[in-house]
Design goal:
By secondary structure, this protein is an alpha/beta fold. It has a single domain, classed as Deoxyhypusine Synthase. It has 17 helices and nine strands. The protein has helices at about 20-30, 35-50, 70-80, 90-100, 115-120, 130-145, 155-170, 180-185, 200, 205-210, 220-230, 245-250, 250-260, 290, 310-325, 340-350, 355; strands at about 55-60, 85, 105, 120-125, 125-130, 190, 235-240, 270-275, 305-310. A six-stranded parallel beta sheet has the order 6-2-1-7-8-9, with helices on both faces. Helix 2 (about 35-50) crosses helix 15 (about 310-325), helix 3 (about 70-80) runs parallel beside helix 8 and helix 11 (about 220-230) crosses helix 16 (about 340-350). The protein starts with about 20 loop residues before the first helix and ends in a 9-residue tail after the last helix. Residues about 360-365 have low confidence and may be disordered.
């Protein structure tokens, strides 16, 4: 887009009102500059995704559930503003602490970690977790969950998390304090693409030594994720941080186009909240515009916004803005549709002759 002109909005001389609502605050952000402006525009883009009934993926990296942000995710699921999730195993593992009532406390970052170790306190920046009362207690819960489950056939991480939500809903002390149980209630698939890189997988080791086999079908789950996008008239991502969750959601476009020859085009909208730099070449900091060259996004010029900020600051503002001015949407209940979505994409791919696959021009909007 050509921005080489003097036609922009006037910068306001900002006046704050003690009675101001979140909508007014976001408007102030959007009319200012720098990352305040980016945050304001991102909040508006999120509401656009909701109003246009896009299928919305939330990706979550970093340790957001230990600081309580699972509650925000839970609310967005309940309102129909999040349809599927890609996150880390750590976020799922630590979210379950709240459902079972295991202690997580505010601590401090200016500490002697040797002393914390002696006191059996585990630290995530300024959050303290008890080694035995929380981590070991959670380990026992996870081990019990999967002692006999998911050992008889290949499974996806979405099935893994769905089972966690089901069991925690039935047996946990505070089942409503978890976005995992809420995802189970609303049939929101929760994928953990790096499942082995977490305590969730570590806790399966005790059963593996007793000859229990856990066969994660990672190929099926990347196809399921692509199938969600393929069956969506509009699709978007709200990315909190980067890492594996970010790439897993964005690679749906290249899988559909580069590998399966669907010419789908990628995501219609992406909001990225990150503190990673693009110049290091890492995926976490890669610009959304760069993703166009891979076919991860439909348009390099529109409906993509990056906010360079801490997610713990920006995400609540963006979420509250959407909750304040958007009506709840009917849940899409994608988890129950995954099998059919997978079969549809498979059948269409297999029905094409090799020569036709090379030139197919199907688009999801046709």
């Amino acid at each position: 887009m050509d921005h080489h002109h003097f036609h922009g909005k006037d910068i306001p001389h900002i006046k704050l009102d003690p009675k101001m609502k979140i909508e007014e605050l976001v408007e102030i952000y959007a009319r200012s500059g720098f990352n305040g402006r980016q945050l304001g525009e991102a909040a508006k883009l999120y509401t656009k995704m909701i109003k246009e009934n896009a299928v919305i993926c939330l990706t979550v990296s970093g340790a957001l559930t230990p600081v309580g942000f699972g509650g925000i995710i839970k609310t967005l699921i309940e309102k129909g503003f999040v349809d599927w999730i890609v996150t880390t195993g750590a976020n799922v593992y630590h979210e379950d602490h709240f459902a079972w009532g295991f202690p997580v406390k505010q601590g401090h970052y200016e500490v002697d970690d040797m002393k914390l170790y002696e006191k059996e306190i585990v630290r995530i920046r300024d959050v303290f977790i008890k080694f035995y009362e929380t981590l070991e207690a959670e380990d026992k819960v996870v081990q019990k969950m999967f002692k006999e489950n998911l050992t008889d056939k290949p499974f996806t991480s979405a099935e893994f998390c769905n089972l966690m939500g089901k069991i925690s809903k039935k047996n946990a002390k505070y089942p409503k304090r978890s976005f995992i149980t809420t995802a189970y209630d609303y049939d929101v698939p929760v994928y953990v693409p790096a499942l082995l890189d977490s305590s969730l997988a570590m806790n399966l080791a005790v059963h593996r030594f007793r000859d229990k086999l856990y066969n994660l079908d990672f190929v099926r789950e990347i196809i399921e994720q692509a199938a969600i996008v393929y069956h969506s008239k509009k699709s978007g991502i709200l990315e909190l941080g980067g890492g594996v969750p970010k790439n897993s959601a964005q690679q749906t476009g290249p899988l559909l186009d580069q590998i399966l020859k669907r010419n789908d085009g990628g995501q219609d909208y992406i909001i990225q909240i990150t503190d990673a730099r693009p110049d290091t070449g890492g995926l976490s900091g890669a610009t959304l515009q760069e993703g166009k060259s891979w076919g991860k996004v439909q348009d390099a010029y529109h409906d993509m916004i990056t906010v360079y900020a801490d997610s713990t600051i920006a995400f609540p503002i963006l979420a509250l803005y959407a909750l304040s001015n958007q009506k709840p949407r009917k849940p899409k209940r994608l988890y129950k549709k995954l099998g059919q979505y997978y079969n549809n994409l498979r059948d269409e791919f297999l029905s094409e002759s090799p020569s036709k696959v090379d030139s197919v021009k199907h688009r999801k909007r046709n």
